[in-house]
Amino acid sequence: MSSGCPKRGTTSFKRIPLALKDHSTWEAADKIQISDEDKDRFWRFVPAIRHYLDTGKLVESAKLADCARQTLLDQVTRCVTLRPDGKPYGWAGLIANLRVSTYTRRAPLPVPNGDANKGGAGAFEKFLQEHPKLREALHDLIRKGGGSGSAIPSKPSFKGVAAAFLKLCYTIGHLTDNDYPLNFPDKARQSVRRYARKFLALDTKAIRAWYGETAAAQLSLQTGHHSFDFFSTVFDVVGADAHKFDCVGVLMLQGPVGPQIVPIKRIWFYPVVERKSTAVCGYTVSITTEISSAVVEEAVVACSTRWTPRAIRIKGLKYIDGAGFPVGTIEGLTAVRPSVVVFDNAAVHFSTRVTERMRRSLGCMVSFGGVGSWWNNGFVERLFGSLEALGIQALPFGTGTGPGDPMRKDAAAQAIKHKATWEELLDFFDVAVANYNATPKASLGHQSPLDVIRRHMETHQCLPRTAPPVSALSPALGITVENLRVAGRLKRGSAAGVYIQIDHVKYTNDNLKRRFELVGQHCSVHIPEKDMRTVTAFAPDGQCLGTLTVLDKRWAQTPHSRDLRRTIMRLVHAGEIPLDVQCYVSTYMEHLAAKAADEARSRPKSVSPSATKLADTARQTGAPLPALPAPAPSTRPLDRATRASLPGYIKPPAW
């Protein structure tokens, strides 16, 4: 790589570019650490070079420096030499012994003379210049960490790169043992190591192979360049993301022989964080394998829901003074309506429910960060680190997060031992986040996140955005609008009131059931997918038909989401849940409880998928956990070994 250094004797006033002649733009040089003799030399050349670049008079400038004309030109050459970043060295070129050009070997490649440490300066670089194919092959080896083919070893090493490169010298370079570098004792292994280290610092693909995707991505951070801010006040920008906390909880099922403790899967935590104050506006917790768009919507709805403290079950865990969430703690704030919501590239964030329904309901923009660019939502990631620092990762029933946080032995068994129920884990999350909002932070001027929002509200620096008008195109948050066909029948000898069917379940009310003129037409129905017991319908002419209630009593008793209803309907159609039940939701929970008990008996110290579903169903519906049924009496006859072991006072059965 060229250093941009002109050759000796080629620099003159006319050949120096105009941009380099402007010495006022040159960077200053630090002269504190150089010797007094070098300082005198430095200050002797400064006015001479300025005079030469301003006037072009070499003789006068050389007299000012009290040196020969060629000596002055040599110093000017050093100052206008370009650095690797394209800028001139400037006044730093006057510092004695500062190398401003790279060494280029002009002598032939060395032949060993008994001392491998002599005669090899610049030899490896000259060798690669003469063998461009080997240079490209070496670059590929470094990018692969010394691996062969397309495979990248788990632990790349310079030793492996050097060994593979020496093989290529025979195959690609067609070299013999008498050629450099094969004729040296170490076969240029140290030269390969030095070259690889320099190449790694400049090649992103190589860094990704040696140090991982995260390390390669982090090199684009902390460059000193700053992007402009999207926000000027609170609630302009919020960020949302999901995080799985590595701890195991349990479900405690009551039964005829005592409680049955069943481990459940780890908990997903999904917060919505305000950018300027870093306050958590709302959150939701999901006990599922993966989060869904319904979880995202639930977290956004929680931002505008008035917060009330939970009844804490853990002894010693409590809310600090001022703890809480913006809506419910800050006077006058009734809803959080951001201008921009920042997401990462998780698949759930690209769902129609998020990108269209939620965006229209809030009247906001949606921003997605680049793939793998976690720093776009860095303020949300810092929240996760803060919560983990509170101790949830150190719990005895934690599972660990990776090599730096090794998995604790028998996390599920520890959860059973300590009876860490999922309700207690939810208490921990609520208290931890509420206390986080009320804790002063140095980055906020020793104010708490809630204090920052409160002061913006008090000084009128924040004007809460009004909600968009509710319509079919932009319904209220959490509402889905569908055009559904109206059904009904009225003829001689039989009649069926007018109704609307949603997911195989009928809805009607006193106003709709006699509107036979609407049969066959399509009405606009606003469906609250979190609780499907009631919906709101509008006639084709826009008139409101009122609130429609589900007709089937089996669906009317317990709140349930649309996803839960569809799950239950699949089991009903498969015959796993009977039709003659009092309540579908409670029957489904009993079905899960029975399966969870069976899984706990077969694998008592393992996580139960059925118990995980049961815990999340109880969280969504608010319904109590069902009791386990008594085990059915065994009808299997006693075998002969059992009969032989019976006590003498017990009459053996007749086989």
UniProtKB/TrEMBL annotation:
Ranges for region Disordered: 596-655
UniProt-listed PROSITE patterns: INTEGRASE
SUPFAM superfamilies with a match to the protein in the record: Ribonuclease H-like (SSF53098)
Name used for this protein in its record: Integrase catalytic domain-containing protein
Organism encoding this protein: Piscinibacter gummiphilus
Residues of the Integrase catalytic domain: 259-457
Domain of life of the native organism: Bacteria
